[in-house]
Amino acid sequence: MPDERKVHKGIIPRLGGVSFFPAVIFTLSLMIGLNRIYGEELFPSIIGGSDTSVLSFGLSSLLLLYLTGITDDLIGVRYRQKFIVQIFCAILLVSSGLWINNLYGIFGIYELPPVVGLPFTVFTIVFITNAINLIDGIDGLASGLSGIALLFFTILFIYQREWLYAALAIVTLGTIIPFFYYNVFGNPNRGRKIFMGDTGSLTIGFILSILAIRFSMYDNAVLHRVPDAIVVAFSLLITPVFDVVRVILHRARFGKNIFSPDKNHIHHKF
To answer: Which helix (H) or strand (E) holds 105?
Structure first.
């Protein structure tokens, strides 16, 4: 419902993100199955030996975030509770072996020990997830920026021949495209406009976290590793990251709650 904190007109549903996780799971599972049955003689296997644990832990974490997002969109969830779920999901993903282990010379730092890299990765996952969650305030902003990042991640992972992550990126991009159309060009008077809500933004943010961290991770098994990979990966997310910093500074300056319980279409006020 529109109110003084929102600029949209008409009653618009905010459950567009409900379709994201099932669509990603269905398409990714179908691609993996078809590749196993028909494609291995023509194409490399999508899942390598080390990818199984990442896929299992990643999908488990995504399911928890998906359910948390639905609950928040329907009845509301306190932000502290959402943070606890996000941190738990980040720890779950890191335990699969996916973590930032090298800064590639940023601030003169190269290899990171686990005692530093693991908590830093957990923080990064939570930050990126919330970055997408918080910029979901203007039609097409979160989905548009995420779509651009997913397109480039698809190209980068294809170049590195990491087929699972390339498949995850392109599948998620395909899920966002129809939502983007109805979010930006939909007519609310005809019931054809929709918002992604926390369900969608948490799902997309976590998937982008997985892709960015995997691309940043130093791995000798990657044949065509990109130099300064961490800079390339996070440059794709620079706009949401800086927007979060901007929002935090703005709200801190005026004594507002940094994490508003309802973000839909309030950033115009800034």
So the answer is: strand 102-106
Cα separation, 214 vs 97, whole angstroms: 10
Range 193-210 average pLDDT? 94
Q: Residue 13's closest CA among 209, 179, 166, 222?
A: 179
> Which amino acid is residue 114, in one-letter code?
P
The reported pTM is 0.90
Residue ranges of domains in the chain: 16-269
Is a pLDDT exceeding 70 seen at residue 59? yes
DSSP class per residue in 91-139: HHHHTTT----EEEEETTEEE--HHHHHHHHHHHHHHHHHHHHHSTTST
Q: Which two tokens stand for residue 101?
A: 């282990």
Q: Bridge partners of 109? A: 106
Structure tokens at 250: 């703005």
Mean pLDDT of the region 125-135: 92
